[in-house]
Amino acid sequence: MKVFCILSDERAAQLKSPAIFSSVLKRQGIKGTYVPFMVKPQDLGQAIQSLRILHVAGANITVPYKEATIPYLDVLSEGANIIGAVNTIVRDGDRLKGYNTNAIGIMDALSEAAFEVEGKRALVFGSGGAARAVVFILNWLRASKIYVSGRNSDQARSISTTFSGEVLELSSLPGRSLPVDIVVNATSVSSSEESPEMAEVVRHLEVTDCRLVFDLNYGRRVNFWQEMAEGKGIHFMDGLSALAFQARRTFALWTGLQVPPEEFIRALKETGT
């Protein structure tokens, strides 16, 4: 019996990953289980160490620990090292290797949505690990301009510097006209209850020529990113397809099996989403 898990804070109980991976493990005939673990920030190092002690076969890392996990790992993949954030851990004996499948999952989701990034202008909200993955892949796909705006200005500036973007202060956005082709939300908030301040910024956002609003979150009953997109006649996409694609990449790292993405989409639908 193989054990896989995902580490997060109190949001661990709300994640779709356990249902998705459990379903795919079963259909692939692998005897295994996938469980969520809620970890306090001060306990993160011990939680990572427990992966070795308990012989956990693989782990996912999600908000808010994608960057904080790195010091506790033995080695990073090239992509994880460049991005500076980890969402997948593979255990090889007592060695733990960190990967980032977020970026490639986002690329696959954009491809499925038939959005061609090359030559396009992007506005990315966020300053954490997810934002780093988004800006990295947009830069790699040759976006012509990438604006980054986050609640942590120093971190947003670091992302912009690393991946040739331009930082914009959140306070400067309301009422400002920005000619961008895509808006990506890589923050953890999508509803007014989560952040009234961010909701207010988005409601007054002016994005000319925009073709796609891409929210990496999913499952929000009320979503101000979706409301903004629909109010302006812009196509909206949430993070479920990106989740399915990155899960496929993670599953291959853990098991060596190349499972068709349709299997993960099917598993998502079975969760009732």
Descriptive report:
With 273 residues, the protein is α/β, with parallel strands linked by helices. It is 37% helix and 22% strand. The chain is built from ten helices and 14 strands. It has helices spanning 17-27, 44-53, 78-83, 102-112, 129-140, 153-162, 196-203, 224-231, 240-255, 261-270; strands at 2-8, 32-38, 58-61, 75-76, 88-92, 95-99, 121-125, 145-149, 166-167, 177-179, 182-185, 206-208, 212-215, 235-237. The strands form three sheets. It has a six-stranded mixed sheet, sandwiched between helices. Strand 8, helix 6 and strand 9 form a beta-alpha-beta unit. The longest helix is centred in the last third of the chain and has 16 residues, at 240-255. The radius of gyration is 18 Å and the shape is globular. The mean pLDDT is 96.
CATH structural class of the largest domain: Alpha Beta
Q: How many distinct helices?
A: 10
The CATH topology of the largest domain? Rossmann fold
Q: Helix/strand/pairing class, anyone?
A: alpha/beta
**CATH level 4 superfamily of the largest domain:** NAD(P)-binding Rossmann-like Domain
Shape descriptor reads globular
List the uncertain runs: none
Approximate strand percentage: 15-25%
- Please provide the count of β strands: 14
The overall pLDDT average reads 96
Examine the secondary-structure arrangement and name the CATH architecture of the largest domain.
3-Layer(aba) Sandwich
Nearest-angstrom radius of gyration? 18 Å
